[in-house]
Amino acid sequence: MTTTGSGERLPPALRTEALEQLLTERGLIDPKVMNGIITEYETNVGPLNGAKVVAKAWTDPEYRRRLLQDGTAAIKELGFSGPQGEHIVVVENTPTTHHVVVCTLCSCYPWPVLGLPPSWYKDPAYRARVVKEPRTVLSEMGLDLDDDVQITVHDSTSEVRWLVLPERPAGTEHLTEEELVSLVTRDAMVGVAKVAAP
Amino acid sequence: MDGIADMGGTPGWGPVHSPRRDEPVFAEPWQRRAFALAILSSRVASGGINVDAFRHALERLDRVAYLDDGYYGRWLNAGELMLTDSAILAPGAIDARARNLRGEHVEEPPIPAPAVPDYAPTAVGSLRSMDTAPAFAVGECVRARDVSVPGHTRLPRYVRGHTGVVQDIRPASVLPDTNAHFLGENPQHVYSVRFDSRELWGADADPFALTVEMYESYLETTS
Prior knowledge:
- The complex is a heterodimer.
- Chain A contains eleven helices and four strands; from the N terminus they run αααααββααααββαα.
- Chain A is of the alpha/beta class.
- Chain A has two domains: about 10-45; about 45-190, Alpha-Beta Complex (Nitrile Hydratase, Chain A), CATH 3.90.330.
- Chain B folds into two domains: about 1-115, Orthogonal Bundle (Cyclin A, domain 1), CATH 1.10.472.20; about 140-220, SH3 type barrels (Roll).
- Chain B is built from seven helices and five strands.
- Chain B has a five-stranded antiparallel β-sheet.
């Protein structure tokens, strides 16, 4: 597929340009639609959406309850929905239980709240190993969990998407919801990191 | 199907990559275009949005096409595969154009007669409502079928033949195994099934739990 008769693999950048030209010149794709998709996922949709969900759950107990009961609906309250977010389940990390998310079969990821997945999430090593030795994998990624913490790994094999509600760090009681948003990281919302206090 | 994409538990990948907080969405400019082109190619080739057909194209790639140009390289290759399946593009059309773009003079293959599937989703997205009751209940012991499926499936190899417990019943959803091949939506109930690590990986495994979403036909009763 990436090889030609000569056996040479052509650079993906060049092949991408070729495909764009072939489809555009036949009117099969609209460059405006294409640029719209790029802007949407490079600029508009990203982990900031998820951080707003988490910060609201940390500061509004009633919202937190709704979020854990029906993630999709509670997330939609903040205006976030769309492809790869048809049914989002939110799970809460605590001092004794830790959730971490993967897609072993491709790289399914909750786009409306986290945007497109980071490179480590798509990496074969993560996809292959986190379902077999999560504690070791998390440790390699800089998260050492105590032995008594119960780990649950969620493999996203259907259209269900998972979002982790991380623990609110100690010492942040005085911060506003807006200030908390800036603390929440993408990695904590997948479950490979904790949120650190400022 | 059993292919390179079914990675859960497979050995030999080395250490994981540490997260970088400032990582850009697209590391290289071509990747953003490959991302959008793959989405649009999949739509053009399917005559509609069919994420299952796209995932099946990804899993049919060989090791080189799947791995060597990374995630967006594999999206580009899956888009190409779907376009050649539907005879929107001839095999080799992209490479021939790519060579001409860099100044070679190669003959490009003629445009074939398109053979786009007759595909009409009954609703937007993958979730569907069903009249029939779920066959399995929360708390019930179930076994993942130990089958090797030649076509598309979302039943990972590492859970096949293993026993778990139904943790939740999720919204019913289009069955990827048939929809990916444009053979009908056949919606099924979907279950989050919880497995113990020692059931999957043996008595010496690190203790943890794992949930996998399973379409109803992937499961059988243990009683």
